[in-house]
Design a protein that fits this description.
Helix content of chain A: 25-40%
Number of domains of chain B: 3
Structural class of chain B: mainly alpha
Oligomer: heterodimer
Distance between the termini of chain A: 75 Å
CATH class of chain A: Alpha Beta
Number of helices of chain A: 9
CATH architecture of chain A: 3-Layer(aba) Sandwich
Chain lengths: 308, 538
């Protein structure tokens, strides 16, 4: 092989490799599912038994089977970001996650994946949050609590993004690998975002350099939710972190509310959860940005709030 | 019939070798976070068994280290049995034997080409041993550069394990679930592979050292053990007067078979007791069946040790000269203390830390985030391969986990103290400082405070000093929060430094507790401007 041939071939191969990198465009699929005329329903439930509370909060929405169809590949996405215990309120409560997963299994899900992209060491976060043990205690081969796998991150175009054009997303959270994405964030304080609720929980389903998101945090969070589209958002406000979030660590900063909020509309759920912290819905920039993008309804007067 | 049922000694020896190797590999895999904050213990047992590491650390630090008690067992057994450890236990020896077996067709030829045993090299291991121990007397730790377990364990940690992880994952990606890969992948990932492939500094150097030890098999069998290994030299000297000896103490007149077989070349010139590792090859393969090991009174006229008085003196001189030269160089040109040279949690005094540390690499293996990296020359030659924190390395998440105390649990010499979670918080690794010129909210009017978000201190050691709002080109309000570090609270974990989104060096960096305040922090008054042209990034 002479030099010219070698260079030609090398160039051809590299061009091929570059072009072969798939760039997903899932928004077209998503857009068809939007139904702007329907009024958002939001359910609030209070109770000490978190396992039955999940069932209570879902009943007015038609139960889990309204979201999970038989044979679905389901993703349950809690917050497992930190090496913190359940009572410290930095992660979603394991009992809530367990109950949600159980409901999905009962609805006939083919597979239920539970994952997050932890900030602290994933093994430590999965263990100390109690979530890995809670999912494993269901003892069902269909339910899996998985660590992130770098090969799952794929670049996705964000066509209507106001601040982001493209980002890496976890393909396991997107169609066709995921039929039903259930968002189970914990409600807590956050220094820059003010609060972290439903929309911000999408940060655990993306790859890439997450630091970049922080430069225009609210709009970029909303942009991410153009791709990550939960069919159901259940905000865990069983205990909320009032200060020193998102990490917390002091029990004096935690307030026990025994509350769950469920809605198919993440923006409405975030708007309502903001009021638990004594603030108005527009306190949260990401809620405002999300409503502007048409992701949901932030005016609680236009939302049907059901107390279960 | 009785003879048929007898298990040959060589098979027993091989079984012991493989068992010890399997134990090492099993312990190696267990040297990791596995869901429990306390390890079961014993992960570092091979280093505790190592009398060379024990002696060097105790001499250098001038203290008795109780954790090395298993080394006394090895010393006692060696006094009784001779240098059995190298033949029956040492995993590096076992790996060399396996390697030789694979390469036998080539190695036979190359060994012959190299002209057999270069017996002039025999004293080298003794000289290395004397240099290491003499330097230890002057508190100049060199043992980690030559100890066989340290070389093997570091090679496995820095290079072997990450390579295994990458190769296996690339394979699984290529297979993508075909050919049964889907069914074995979970098992392999959970039980055989490391959780993540950490990248280490000096990985290439460690791999090259280990590779040369293996390559020397092509020159002579067990080249490392025969000529270079200082631990082998130490055990050989200890076992010299053991009452158990091979008989006859030499070859027969008509047959030289055992001398040809001997992997340690212990029979070429009478029996060299310091070289015989009791591998039992000569017993099992003796054509006349007369070779055996039996208790015997020590000979009044043993074969002399392969070390001349001149060689011993030269070793002593070199061992003393290296520390002296290093001290002179330091006096001539004082080394500036690196303010970023962060040592593992609980380490207060740099000098006694370097004396105690045997460079085994256990702490770097067990560290869940890979923030513990070997020092190169930041603390001189004597600090090479000692662990330090590098909070901003190849991976995003290299920092010290607040609740993790594993490094102190695996340290065989106590160089890194065992700390409870509470005690660890009370002994900060360093203190963070913000560079206002590089920090996005301070220098670029860009919202960030990722450092504040990450800070694991329950009360947040990073707080907000100023908050103000700008309006960007799209008419969207952006809140700028300017952070500062409360150094009373800061524990120096480095998660802020590792997560800072600024390209290049982080805008927030952890400095040693004893490093001077760099004075880069200025409490700027916030400027108000708008609409502000906000650049789109990412």
């Amino acid at each position: 092989m002479d030099r010219r041939k070698f260079i030609e071939q090398a160039a051809a191969w590299s061009a091929g490799a570059c072009l072969a990198t798939p760039i997903f465009d899932v928004q077209a699929v998503m857009a068809a599912e939007k139904n702007p005329d329907k009024k958002s329903i939001l359910v609030v439930a209070v109770g000490k038994d978190y396992s039955s509370l999940v069932e209570t909060v879902l009943k007015p929405l038609g139960g889990m089977s309204a979201f999970v169809k038989r044979g679905d590949n389901v993703v349950v996405k809690p917050n497992i970001g930190w090496d913190r215990t359940p009572e410290q309120a930095a992660n979603t409560h394991p009992e809530v996650v367990k109950a949600v997963v159980r409901q999905c299994l009962d609805a006939g899900a083919k597979r239920v994946l539970v994952f997050d992209r932890s900030v602290n060491d994933a093994r430590r976060s999965y263990a100390r949050s109690g979530i890995k043990a809670a999912v494993e205690s269901l003892d069902d081969a269909r339910a899996k609590c998985e660590y992130e796998n770098k090969r799952d991150y794929v670049p996705v175009k964000i066509a209507d993004g106001k601040s982001l054009d493209e980002f890496e997303f976890n393909r396991k959270a997107l169609p066709p690998e995921c039929d039903c994405y259930i968002n189970v964030p914990v409600a807590k304080h956050h220094g820059q975002a003010k609060l972290t609720l439903g929309l911000k929980n999408a940060m655990g389903a993306i790859g890439g350099n997450r630091g970049i998101i922080h430069r225009d945090l609210h709009r970029r969070i909303a942009d991410l939710n153009l791709v990550i589209r939960p069919k159901l958002t259940i905000i865990d406000a069983t205990r909320i972190l009032l200060r020193h979030g998102p990490t917390g660590g002091k029990l004096e900063d935690v307030q026990v509310l025994d509350t769950l909020i469920a809605s198919a509309d993440t923006v409405a759920a975030d708007a309502y959860a903001t009021t638990l912290f004594g603030e108005k819905p527009d306190y949260l920039g990401s809620t405002v940005a999300g409503a502007r993008l048409g992701l949901g309804e932030m005016d609680l007067a236009k939302v049907e709030v059901v107390k279960a | 019939m009785k003879r048929l049922l007898r298990i040959p000694w060589r098979w027993r020896r091989r079984a012991a070798q493989l068992a010890a190797l399997a134990l090492l590999l099993w312990l190696f895999r267990r040297t990791a976070y596995s869901g429990e904050d306390q390890l079961t213990g014993g992960e570092n047992i091979f280093f505790c068994f190592d009398p060379l590491c024990g002696a060097a650390a105790m001499i250098a630090a001038r203290q008795f280290i109780a954790q090395f008690w298993p080394a006394l067992v090895v010393v006692f057994l060696t006094l009784v049995l001779g240098r059995f450890f190298c033949g029956w236990i040492c995993p590096l020896g076992t790996l060399l034997d396996c390697f030789h077996r694979i390469l036998r067709p080539i190695a036979r030829r190359t060994n012959r080409l190299s002209g057999g045993a270069p017996s002039r090299l025999r004293p080298v291991r003794y000289i290395l041993l004397i240099v290491v121990l003499a330097a230890a007397v002057f508190s100049f730790p060199l043992v980690g550069l030559v100890d066989p377990f340290a070389l093997l364990f570091r090679g496995m940690t820095f290079w072997g394990d990450p390579a295994l992880h990458e190769v296996a994952y690339a394979g699984f990606e290529r297979l993508d679930g075909r050919w049964g890969a889907e069914s074995i992948e979970p098992f392999v990932v959970e039980h055989l592979l490391p959780f993540r492939a950490n990248v280490f500094r000096l990985a290439g150097v460690s791999a090259a050292i280990l590779a040369s030890i293996f390559a020397l098999e092509l020159v002579a069998r067990r080249f490392w053990c025969r000529y270079l290994c200082p631990l082998g030299a130490m055990l050989g000297l200890l076992g010299r007067w053991s009452p158990i000896k091979r008989l006859p103490a030499g070859t027969c007149k008509s047959c030289n078979r055992c001398a040809e077989l001997c992997r340690m070349d212990a029979l070429s010139d009478g029996l060299s007791a310091e070289d015989c590792t009791l591998c039992m090859d000569c017993v099992d393969l003796c054509p006349r069946g007369i070779a055996r090991f039996a208790p015997r009174r020590p000979s009044s006229n043993p074969r002399p040790v392969d070390l001349s008085r001149r060689g011993a003196l030269a070793g002593l001189a070199v061992g003393a000269a290296i520390p002296a030269l290093a001290a002179a160089a330091r006096a001539f040109r004082p080394r500036e203390k690196d303010p970023y040279l962060l040592r593992p949690p609980g380490v207060d005094d740099e000098d006694s830390f370097l004396d105690l540390c045997v460079r085994c690499g256990e702490c770097m293996k067990v560290c869940p985030t890979g923030v513990l990296q070997p020092a190169v020359l930041e603390s001189g030659v004597e600090g090479m391969f000692s662990p330090r924190l590098v909070p901003r390395f190849v991976f995003e998440q290299t920092y010290c986990e607040l609740n993790c105390t594993l490094c102190g649990q695996v340290c065989p010499s106590g160089a890194i103290p065992r700390l409870s979670e509470q005690a660890k918080l009370a002994r900060p690794i360093g203190k963070a400082y913000i560079d206002h010129d590089r920090c996005l909210p301070w220098g670029k009017e860009t919202p960030c405070i990722r450092c504040e978000e990450m800070c694991p201190v329950p009360e947040k050691a990073i707080k907000i000093l100023n908050t103000y709002t700008i309006v960007n080109a799209d008419g969207f309000e952006l809140e700028i929060q300017q952070p500062y570090v409360d150094r009373e609270l800061c524990v120096g974990c480095g998660i802020c430094e590792s997560n800072c989104p600024v390209e290049g060096p982080s805008a927030i960096r952890v400095r040693r507790v004893d490093a001077p305040d760099p004075g880069t922090e200025t409490k700027l008054e916030p400027t108000r401007r708008g609409p502000y042209p906000f650049r789109r990034e990412g």
